[in-house]
C-alpha cells in the first residue's frame, strides 16, 4: 500500500510540456524501484493497487487538462504508460529476484528493461489507441511520448540503480537471488 501511495505522490510532481500531451512525472522511477525492492509479485500488486485507486476516482493520477479523474484517464494520452506499470514492476522484480538488484550495472539493466516496457506501451497507445483529437502515428508518438523524457528517465534509472544496492548492503535486508532451476 505504501508503494502505491508513493506512485500517487510521484504523479503529483507533474510538469506539463507544451509540445506533448504527456506530462513529466517521477512515476516511472517509483514503478521501477517498486519492482526492484518488492520483487515481481508484490511490485506488480503495488501498481495494480495504484491503478485501482485511480479507477475508483481517487485523485492519484497526474493532473490533466484533457480528462477528468477516474477510469477515463486510462483512455487518454497517458493510458498506455499507466497500464504498463504493473508489467514493468513485475519484470524489474523478476530480474531483481535473480540478483539483478545487487550490482549497479545489473540494476541499470533491470530498470532499463522495465522502462522499455513503459515506453513501448505508452508510445503504442499514443500512436494507435489514445483518445486524442487526431491519431498521432508512430513517428509523432515517439517524438512526443519518448523523446522529451528519455534523458531524464535514464538519469532517474542511474540514481535508482545506485541507491538500491547500497541500501541492501547497508541494511542487510536484501533477499537472496531465487534459484530458478527447480
How many separate domains? 1
How much is the radius of gyration in Å? Answer: 16 Å
- Fill in the CATH topology: Arp2/3 complex 21 kDa subunit ARPC3
- Helicity level: 55-70%
Total strands: the figure is 0
H/E element sequence: HHHHHHH
Kindly describe this structure.
With 182 residues, the chain is an all-alpha fold. The chain has a single domain (2-171), classed as Arp2/3 complex 21 kDa subunit ARPC3. The protein is 65% helix and 0% strand. It contains seven helices and no strands. α1 (2-12) packs across α3 (40-55). The mean pLDDT is 88.
Summed up:
The chain is mainly α and 182 residues long. It is built from 7 helices and no strands. It is 65% helix and 0% strand.
Which descriptors apply to this entry?
65% helix; single chain; mainly alpha; Arp2/3 complex 21 kDa subunit ARPC3; 182 residues; 7 helices
Per-chain topology:
Layout: H1 2-12, H2 27-38, H3 40-55, H4 79-100, H5 104-129, H6 137-145, H7 150-171
Amino acid at each position: 500500500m505504501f508503494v502505491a501511495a508513493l506512485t500517487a505522490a510521484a504523479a503529483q510532481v507533474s510538469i506539463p510540456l507544451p509540445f506533448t500531451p504527456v506530462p513529466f512525472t517521477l512515476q516511472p522511477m517509483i514503478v521501477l524501484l517498486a519492482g526492484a525492492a518488492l520483487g515481481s509479485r508484490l511490485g506488480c500488486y503495488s501498481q495494480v493497487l495504484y491503478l485501482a485507486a485511480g479507477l475508483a476516482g481517487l485523485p492519484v493520477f497526474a493532473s490533466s487538462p484533457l480528462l477528468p479523474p477516474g477510469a477515463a484517464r486510462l483512455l487518454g494520452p497517458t493510458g498506455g504508460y499507466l497500464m504498463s506499470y504493473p508489467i514493468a514492476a513485475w519484470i524489474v522484480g523478476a530480474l531483481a529476484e535473480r540478483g539483478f538488484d545487487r550490482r549497479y550495472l545489473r540494476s541499470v539493466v533491470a530498470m532499463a528493461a522495465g522502462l522499455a516496457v513503459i515506453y513501448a506501451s505508452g508510445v503504442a497507445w499514443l500512436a494507435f489507441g489514445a483518445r486524442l483529437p487526431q491519431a498521432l502515428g508512430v513517428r509523432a508518438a515517439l517524438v512526443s511520448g519518448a523523446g522529451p523524457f528519455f534523458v531524464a528517465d535514464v538519469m532517474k534509472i542511474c540514481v535508482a540503480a545506485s541507491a538500491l544496492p547500497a541500501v541492501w548492503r547497508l541494511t542487510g535486508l536484501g533477499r537472496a537471488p531465487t534459484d530458478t532451476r527447480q
